[in-house]
């Protein structure tokens, strides 16, 4: 069977139905409850002679792992999509968030773009390859993961299981509107705390004001130079002080203040070096200001990721996308982080993000995915697996 015939086996009705079914299977995280969605994946693929397995993560939480066996003469390929979604939000939707309506050429509902649509495209591609009995040198592995929206617990567990076999690349179907993303910014969140002593608000000289200590730190932080080099795809490093709280009453000197900072890093930056800069600010202030006490600690720490455009998998994939869509390929990157943070520390393989949803639809009310993009992604996934594993 040639690639055109293989792509033809991916039917619009099938990928749409699968996307609808997944949207209708609620898996809002927190709490997740991805078991039903994982069971759906297992059921749908088992019918096609694909080896399937549920990977449990506690009560009502699971990832699904599916494997279309090759001849074991080459490395495997991983297709991954997360099962969980963010909550619906307070705004009124035009279509039922868990209805999976098809209207105006789109599938509507929470997760349609991020990323049940992408997962449906990968599953449909796998089914087409299985049904056509396309000979593969390596295995095609599909990982439908739990927990991406909170802590990537599914990806971390699945990566552990796959850590001992040769793997050539990891594709994640995050919403990229069928554009190729090969880099992801790092995320480095820190929490700063200051400690003082309470006193009556009319006698501030008897206390030590934790909020004013935080002000000192923030003044220094604003001036602090955090070095980085602009990345050709990701752009620059960003930082933003996004929460602060302290004090209990207007007439009480505050003895405690907490602030958090969201930093997004680019390749070349080292998170421990940034942490050391913050520690130096605190140390310097403790020497200069009497009774100054503060701490800083990371609360979310994932390094930036990049796959070079010259990577052979990236090259082969961009050729396929250009051939099948007629579009010129421009490599892009994500400001957000994906399940790559769970997979890559263990697997260390080239990463490509590619999926049918629009990036702007993620986490929005009235989330949807275009049917034409869904079908296009599914066909590209089918041909890509055939070529990379062929
Ligand atoms: Zn996502």
Name the descriptors.
Aminopeptidase; 23% strand; 16 strands; 10 helices; six-stranded mixed beta sheet; Alpha-Beta Plaits; 2 domains; alpha/beta; four-stranded antiparallel beta sheet; 390 residues; binds zinc ion
Structure description:
- The chain is α/β, with parallel strands linked by helices and 390 residues long.
- The chain has two domains: 3-184 and 304-388, Zn peptidases (Aminopeptidase, 3-Layer(aba) Sandwich); 186-302, Alpha-Beta Plaits.
- Helices cover 34% and strands 23% of the residues.
- Strands 1-2-6-3-7-15 form a six-stranded mixed beta sheet, with helices on both faces. A four-stranded antiparallel beta sheet has the order 10-11-9-12.
- A hairpin with a 5-residue loop joins strand 1 and strand 2.
- Helix 5 packs parallel to helix 9 (340-347) and helix 6 (210-223) packs across helix 7 (271-288).
- It is elongated, with a radius of gyration of 24 Å.
- It starts with a helix and ends with a helix.
- Zinc ion binds at residues 82, 114-115, 148, 174.
Fold topology:
Blueprint: H1 3-9, H2 12-24, H3 35-46, E1 51-56, E2 62-68, E3 76-82, E4 102-103, E5 106-108, H4 112-131, E6 140-145, H5 153-162, E7 167-172, E8 181-184, E9 186-195, H6 210-223, E10 238-246, E11 256-265, H7 271-288, E12 294-302, E13 305-306, H8 312-325, E14 332-334, H9 340-347, E15 351-353, E16 368-370, H10 371-388
Parallel strand pairs: 3-6, 3-7, 7-15, 8-14
Antiparallel strand pairs: 1-2, 2-6, 4-5, 5-16, 8-13, 9-11, 9-12, 10-11
Helix pairs in contact: 1-10, 2-4, 4-10, 5-9, 6-7, 8-10
The protein binds zinc ion.
Residues 82, 114-115, 148, 174 line the site of zinc ion.
């Amino acid at each position: 069977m040639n690639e055109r015939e293989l792509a033809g086996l991916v039917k619009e009705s099938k990928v749409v139905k699968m996307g609808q079914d997944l949207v209708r299977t609620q898996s809002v995280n927190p709490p997740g409850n991805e078991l039903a969605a994982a069971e759906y994946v297992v059921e749908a693929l088992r019918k096609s002679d694909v080896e399937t397995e549920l990977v449990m993560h506690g009560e009502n939480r699971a990832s699904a792992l599916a494997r279309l066996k090759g001849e074991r003469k080459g490395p495997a390929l991983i297709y991954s999509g997360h099962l969980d979604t963010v909550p619906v939000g307070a705004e009124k939707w035009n279509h039922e968030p868990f209805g999976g309506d098809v209207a105006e050429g789109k599938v509507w509902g929470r997760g349609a773009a991020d990323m049940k649509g992408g997962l449906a495209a990968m599953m449909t591609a796998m089914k087409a390859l299985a049904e056509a009995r396309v000979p593969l040198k390596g295995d095609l592995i599909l990982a439908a993961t739990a927990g991406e929206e909170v802590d990537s617990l599914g990806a971390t567990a699945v990566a552990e299981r796959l850590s001992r076999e040769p793997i050539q690349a990891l594709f994640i179907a995050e919403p990229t509107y069928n554009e190729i993303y090969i880099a992801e910014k790092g995320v480095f969140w820190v929490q700063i705390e200051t400690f003082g002593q309470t006193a009556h608000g009319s006698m501030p000289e008897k206390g030590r004001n934790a909020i004013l200590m935080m002000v000192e730190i923030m003044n220094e932080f604003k001036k602090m130079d955090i070095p980085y080099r602009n990345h050709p795809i990701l752009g620059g490093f960003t930082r933003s002080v996004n929460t602060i709280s302290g004090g209990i009453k207007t007439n009480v000197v505050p003895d405690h203040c907490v602030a958090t900072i969201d930093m997004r890093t680019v390749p070349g930056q080292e998170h421990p070096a940034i942490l050391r800069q913050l520690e130096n600010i605190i140390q310097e202030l403790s020497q200069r200001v009497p009774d100054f006490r503060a701490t800083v600690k990371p609360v979310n720490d994932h390094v930036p990721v990049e796959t070079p455009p010259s990577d052979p998998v990236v090259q082969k994939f961009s050729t396929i996308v250009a051939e099948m869509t007629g579009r010129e390929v421009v490599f892009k990157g994500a400001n957000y982080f994906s399940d790559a943070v769970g997979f890559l520390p263990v697997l260390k393989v080239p990463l490509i993000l590619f999926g049918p949803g629009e990036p702007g639809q993620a986490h929005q009310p009235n989330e949807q995915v275009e049917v034409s993009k869904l079908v296009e992604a599914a066909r590209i996934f089918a041909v890509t697996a055939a070529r990379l594993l062929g």
